[in-house]
Every structure is written in C-alpha cells, then in structure tokens.
Amino acid sequence: MTFIYFSPFPCYSLFVIKKGAVIHMKINNNSINDKEINKNDTPNALISSDDLLKFFNLERDNVQKFSITHKKDGVYVSITLNQTYCQCPVCGNMTNRVKDYKDKKITHSILTITSCYIIYHARRYQCTHCKKSFYENNPFTFGGRLSVVTVSNVLKDLKSPNATFTDVARRYGISITTAISLFDRHVHISRRQLPECLALDEIYAFKSHDSDYVCVIVDYLDKKIIDVLPSRHKNVLINYFMLIPREEREKVKYVSFDMWNTYRIVTKHVFPTAVCITDHFHVIQELNRRVDKVRIRIQNRYKKIKETLKQKEKDKTITKEERLELEEASRYYYVLKKFNWLLFSTNNKIFDDNNEKKLNHVLNRYCNYSDLFTYMLSIDEELETASNLKDQVVYFYDHCNHDNAKKKLEEIIIDFRSCPVEEMAPFANTLTNWKNEIINSFIIVDDRSKRKMNTAIVENRNKTIKLIKHASNGYLNWERFRNRILYTLNDDTTYYFTCIRKDRN
Description:
The chain is an alpha+beta fold. It has helices at about 50-55, 150-155, 165-170, 175-185, 235-240, 245-250, 260-270, 280-315, 320-340, 370-380, 380-400, 405-415, 425-435, 435-440, 455-470, 480-490; strands at about 1-5, 15-20, 20-30, 30, 65-70, 75-80, 85, 95, 100-105, 115-125, 135, 195-205, 215-220, 225-230, 255, 275-280, 360, 365, 445, 450.
C-alpha cells in the first residue's frame, strides 16, 4: 500500500512512502550519503534528500542522522543534529562537551493525510567553565512539543473567521486546549492609534455580567478596527478613551455613530473638538420601522376582517356583499404581507413600468413590481402618506449638500409634525433631537474621494464578528474574543513567534 503525502510548502510538492518503509540518511563530513539508503525501502522517492530535509526546517549541514518510519499512528522522523560548539547561557563560555541525550517527541503538521512526529535526539552540553548543563539550540520548536510549522499552520488557519479551534485542532492532530493555548500565547493585538475619522457601533456578540453588546471602534478611512470593547455603557467608554493621551484624542476630527445617545454624550466628553455625525443608514432604518408599523396595523385590520368573514362563510351565513368584501380583504392582506419589502427596496430598476408583466393568480391579473407597489399604496391612504414621507427623507439624503441641508431638514420636520398618521408624527421629534448630527452627515471628510461619513464599514465588520461568534458557538473569554476579532478582521495583524505571555485558564 502506497501513501502520498502533500506538503504545505509550494516548492516541495510530494513524496511517496510505502507502508512499513524506512528511509535512513546518515551524514558524514557534512554530506548525506544517498548510496546508504536501501533501495527497497524507498521505491519511489520523488524529491532529493536536500528537499526532504527542508520539510523539517533543516539544512544538509545541520544533520548528522535522519530517518523516516511509517507506523500505524503516523510518520515518525528521527533526527540527530551535528555536534557543534555552543555558548553557555550562564557564563557565555563556548563548549562542545556532550553530557547526554534525550529523545523529544514533537508534533509536526507537515503532512495532510496522516500524523507526523519528529523524534528529536536532543543533545545536552555541559559547560567546561561553570559546569552548568544546557540543551543545544532547537530548530524545530519554540521550546514545547509542537514544531514551528505546526504552530504557524494553526495560527494561519485561525485567521479565517470560519475557522474554529475544534476544526483547526483536528486538522493538525492536537487537542482543542492546545489550539486555544497557542492562540492565547502567540496572538495579542494592541489598540491602534486613533484616526481623524472615527466610527462607533455596537453588536450583540458577547454576553458579560453587565452588557450584551460589544462596541466596535473603526477607522473610517482605512477601514481598520481600532479596538473592540466589551460594553457600550457610558462609563466603560469614557474610562477607556480618557486613558488615551489628550494629544491623541484631539486628532479625532469626526465621529460617526447611530442614534444611541450614549455615543453622543461620550464623544462630546472625550473628543471636545470633534464633529458628531449621525449615520443616514440608521435614520432611514428608524423611519422604515415606523412605516412598517403602519403597514402591519393596516394588514392586521384586513386580517381580522378576513378571519371574521371566513367564519361566516364556513357557517354559510355570509351575504353576497360580505363575500365580495372577503375577496377584497384577502387580496389586500396578501399584497401587504407578501410584498411588504417593496416599501423599503432601494433598487429602482424593479419599479420600472416597462418591466415584464406576469400573471398573479391571487390577484388574477398581469402585473409587475411597479404595479404591485402602486396597488399596495392604493389600499390605504395612511400607508401612502407614510411611504411618501419616507421617500422625502431618502430624496433629502440623495440630493442635498451641507449648505442646503439645514433648510430642507426643517421643512421635512414640519411635514412630519403635521402628519395625521400616528406612527409617523413622533419622528419629527427624532429629527429635531438629532438635527445637528444629521446636517453634519453631509460634510465631506475625504476630499480625494468626496466621501461623507457613515457606519456602513462598521456594519460590514459586524457581520464578520457575528460569523466568528456563531462558528465557535460563542466565547467565554473576552480577551480571546477581542484578539480573535482584531486578528481576523485587520489584514495587517499577525502573530508573534515568541510566546508573549503565559497560558490562561
């Protein structure tokens, strides 16, 4: 039976080992004698001995003995390095006196279809000056039982938001605890410098003792996450930002956020020179909720009529006029429920009157989405009024600039305040309360691209954060969750090869 093993290194494609085969390589005078390899043991070697050594982070000049054995639980690679002069870590004396050897088993994830282990015949030296003993430099590990390649592969795979500690551990033949420990020891992302344009938003992602939301801080211009905080509470945010030097905080010119009043309070406290901006997406989102409440109220009215007349029909007490009313109520309920999304669609192409008309069996007519939308608004005058007010705000954002935004917004506020629809009139108070922040959203913050600030980039990052959370079925350790977010979402973040801290429980 022949096993084919693929390497993650692009330049070293594969080698073939038959089950039970052993490859022996001995080095004399710093060279591998290939003639000493039993031809029966390596029937189909597809790479050179030099390339094979590179699978294990070795060079020809460093190896004294090298052998590969295939066993039931994986491939075992026995390695002995050349004896050299080493510097005593205590006194600095150079010595080549060998005290003894110790075999160390190292997990090495170089193969993809079976486990691979390095049996490292570690040499221990004894200093001739201070008599202290020490091991030779280990090229395979960071000092533990996992090879450098294994650690690197684990950490690289965890860069993907879909990757879980369980999947990565299984892939490289290590325990879940070990995978988590590797991440905690080698990944620690510091806060980035505060930018000129700061965006704040929250997401339901980590449940702590005092909060269900995390606060995401993003550089609007370069789209990098500055930091993630375990709460959106005012005291948490103020305490965090006040620890940052005032000189750095004064560099922040613009801060964008949704209509969460805490963000406005915090911004004015910690960024006294910054301009507050309310993202248009959240204004429209709040307005859409109100329009939908109008639709639901009207829909429920026709639902009740439908259910009442259906019962009469069942009891055979329905009149001819009531039957017509039932048919009408059924049509209205159907359109309001099934095509509610038309009220909030931003795709203007679907509202083209010239689009193909198709037969709607419920309505018993040929129509397109434009016809259905018109029909929906004709059902109730209040719904049409609510929809027109929403369109007025959308037009405001699409066509106004910072110079005329104030005047146009004041006109819109008057229209909302005089609106007879109970769900829509209170929105005038919302617009009044956030008037300055709405007007500020028209400020051009990037002259090159003519960009205005919003929190769209934060919303995009929030989707990935949700993916990280759901893929791992949640996190219990906040620091680990924070580092995973920053490590995954910022493409310029990486891990440390040296362990920067101790394992955590």
